[in-house]
Every structure is written in structure tokens, then in C-alpha cells.
């Protein structure tokens, strides 16, 4: 069979893959391939590049600060008409840059003034223990952040509770779920910075 090849496109794609992200553009390429000259059912392949530009980064910056900002107000801030602005936001959701919209709750208003950082070291690195430990920790609402680390500490938990007494109750429930041998807990004396805004200058 004869296959129509689009060899002139290949060098373009190769060059675009090597460009820095900020120098790429948003475009689509439609490849129509026929298995033979008489084939009336061609195969269609769409190669789509959706690369973030400076306007997208401005949108993310404003939405990180206030996700409920009206489209009309946001479009003025970024010098774009409302419809293209809305389309760009939809694209950012579709591409996964924006996961979801949530309400940020003041923890002190809901009686979670005590912040504990729990460092855990373990000599048990088998899959059975790890799976049981990870699943157990994820079930505990007081744990708002949970990491596996390199170095001397294996796991780090950020825990929010009303008081030291409530943390003790939390700790007992944690140790009931899985055997822990080396646990160190530090309590926050003062919160100096806490933000959900991510830096955008690396993209």
C-alpha cells in the first residue's frame, strides 16, 4: 500500500519541542493519512499544542488571590475582552492547571489553633507496613499535609487540632492504626507565612 507522508511537518515539530515553553504558541495540526490512493476513509490525527503564555499566567495570578473575581473585572485587569478571558479560564481547567475552586477557611474560627509537625522514622520499609500506615494517616481528618521524605526522617505530617490534649488523643489514634517506633513532634509557636498561592515564574 501507499501511505502519504507529511515529512515536511516532522522537522517543525522537532524544533518546537526544543523551544522554551514561553516561546511556544497555541496551535493545532491536522494530519490526514490515506492507506491507499483509492481509500475513501482516511485516518485523522490531531496534534494539539496548548502552551501557557503571559496572559494565562496573569489569569492564574489573579485567580489564586480571588477565584470568585467576576469575568468582567478580570478581563479589564488583563486587557482582554470577557469572552476570550472566559475561554482561557476554561482552557486552564481543561488542561489541569486549575484543579478546582475551594473556600479557604480560617482555622482559628473553627477551633484549630494548634499546629503540630510530626516527624516519623521507621525501620519497617516493607510494602505491607507502608500501605497500612499511609492509608491510616489519610483517613485522619486532622492531617492536612502528609509527605514521604528523603534524609533521616521518613514521613512528615502537618496536623491541626484545638489543643495539646486533643493532639494527644490524635496521637493515640494514630499509634492504634500502626506500630510507630520513632516519633518527634514540634508545635508551631507562630505562623509567619501561610499561602496557597504558587509561584508562576518557573513556567
Notes on the protein architecture:
With 203 residues, this protein is an alpha+beta fold. 33% of the residues lie in helices and 20% in strands. The chain has helices spanning 10-18, 54-65, 71-77, 82-94, 127-138, 164-177; strands at residues 27-33, 43-49, 114-121, 143-148, 155-161, 182-187. The strands form two sheets. Strands 4-5-3-6 form a four-stranded antiparallel beta sheet. The longest helix has 14 residues, at 164-177. The model is unreliable at 1-6 and 21-25 (pLDDT under 50).
**Number of helical segments with 4 or more residues:** 6
Rounded to the nearest angstrom, the radius of gyration is 26 Å
- Give the proportion of residues in helices: 25-40%
Beta-strand percent range: 15-25%
User: What's the overall average pLDDT, rounded?
Assistant: 84
Largest sheet: 4 strands, antiparallel
Q: Provide the low-confidence segments as ranges.
A: 1-6, 21-25
Strand order of the largest sheet: 4-5-3-6
Oligomer: single chain
User: What's the count of strands?
Assistant: 6
Amino acid at each position: 500500500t501507499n501511505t502519504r507522508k507529511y515529512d515536511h511537518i516532522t522537522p517543525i515539530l522537532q524544533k518546537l519541542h526544543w523551544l522554551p515553553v514561553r516561546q511556544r504558541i497555541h496551535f493545532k495540526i491536522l494530519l490526514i493519512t490515506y492507506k491507499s490512493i483509492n481509500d475513501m476513509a482516511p485516518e485523522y490525527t490531531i496534534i494539539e499544542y496548548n502552551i501557557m503564555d503571559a496572559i494565562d499566567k496573569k489569569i492564574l495570578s489573579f485567580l489564586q488571590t480571588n477565584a470568585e473575581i467576576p469575568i468582567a473585572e478580570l478581563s479589564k485587569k488583563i486587557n482582554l475582552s470577557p469572552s476570550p478571558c472566559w475561554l482561557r479560564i476554561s482552557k486552564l481547567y481543561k488542561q489541569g492547571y486549575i484543579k478546582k475552586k475551594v473556600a479557604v477557611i480560617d482555622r482559628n474560627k473553627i477551633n484549630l489553633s494548634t499546629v503540630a509537625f510530626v516527624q516519623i522514622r521507621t525501620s519497617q520499609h516493607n510494602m505491607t507496613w507502608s500501605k497500612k500506615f499511609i492509608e491510616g494517616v489519610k483517613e485522619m481528618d486532622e492531617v492536612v499535609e502528609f509527605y514521604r521524605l528523603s534524609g533521616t526522617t521518613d514521613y512528615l505530617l502537618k496536623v491541626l487540632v484545638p489543643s495539646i490534649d486533643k493532639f494527644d488523643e490524635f496521637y493515640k489514634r494514630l499509634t492504634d492504626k500502626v506500630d510507630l517506633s520513632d516519633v518527634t513532634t514540634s508545635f508551631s509557636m507562630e505562623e509567619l507565612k501561610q499561602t496557597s498561592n504558587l509561584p508562576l515564574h518557573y513556567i
